Here is the input.
Amino acid sequence: MSYRKDLAALVETKKDDFTKISDAVWEFAESRFQEFRSFALQADYMEEQGFRVKRGLAQVETAFLAEHGQGKPVIAFLGEYDALSGLSQEADVTYHKPIEPGKDGHGCGHNLLGAASLAATVALKDYMEQNNLPGTIRYYGCPAEENAGGKAFLVRDGVFDDCDIALTWHPASVNAVTETGSLANFRVFYTFHGTSSHAAGAPHLGRSALDAVEIMNVGVNYMREHMIDQARIHYAVINTGGTAPNVVQSEAQVLYAIRAPKVTQVIDLHRRVDNCAKGAALITETKVDIKHVAAYSDYIANDVISEKIGENMDAFLPIGYTEEEIEYARKFQEVITDLDKENLQQMAKKLAGKEAKEILKTPLYDWRIEGLGPSKGSTDVGDVSWVVPTGQFSAVTLAAGTPGHAWQVVAQGKGPVAHKGMLFAAKVLAATGYQFLTDLDLVAKAREAWLEDLDGETYPNALPKDAKPEIW
Here is the structure.
């Protein structure tokens, strides 16, 4: 269809801009609610392209929207640009080599994610102007997807309330439409306060906050046997109370991630984890402060949007790789761990059965994969999907088998495969956006399917009323 060809050409016309933006965000590597340079770069560029830009959405300093057009429908493209802590890594290096040890890095490819969504919005704006098309398109610059669920704050404050369709994607090692089923996820701090004392001279006078953390963790670990199989609970001890073993620790803190397929299930698990904390405080005669700082809802994929995304993915595939690009990816595939290689083999068997050996011959999957099943991760795109019909997909930017949230992702984030996947994603997003922008009946069908999926439920809005976007 001509619009696909034209939109793809518009993406290609400014591909140097989009690649530079992606690479710059990779260099900035800013984590949750601290994406000041990444945010400014994208917002400034959209103003230069003629968009109406509104900065600082929902009291989030690093969130913005860029809008073009007027009236209905309103098509939203979601972008992200936050990095992960502790994943600093030099680009294109096939061994662990931090640029600066302990600093952040783009271990989830959000530099590519935001740049492709931005590229799709710019291409569709140019096409609208060339063809005098009505309707409204928006690019949402969304911070703090990692660890803080930034979109949940935007959803809570009504930033997406007038949108008709929301579209996004994610970097990956496969091309696939994202199925319903990402896990809902709460992040909760438990801070214990005890009484310090000399651990040898007067241990009976001390009440250890660190003991309370340990007892809480033991309680939660025993709880795992008595929760649904799909649930996941993880923790990190943030503050051990000091480094002196001869001082009873008066303060200690642990951060929990609590996940399950549905928000309602996480709410109940949260209650039970709270009870473990309260029980630990009772046992140790300490006090505990509980602070719920983030809440991700489960993702509801819209079948109507997903179908159109799949059609457009098929239209733009194969991406087409050179021998040099295949060899580049192969070098990274060779340095993944044995466990990751085993996982890759299992995935190949699941997807291709007896033909798995053929899939394993190439490090780059240049076709669309079906049947992966629901994600075991979490995303704040889920919160958007509760208030707007939403579609999402993944596109190849990595060698097959690359583990997520790892230095290998960062190392490939500025490479040729990453750039090609980013531009492919931009074309799919732009074409899908065009279809809904120009077909109100299609928008209505997506909304009808969305209402059927909700089945009378409304957005759970699991964030506490006093929760604020903050750096923690």
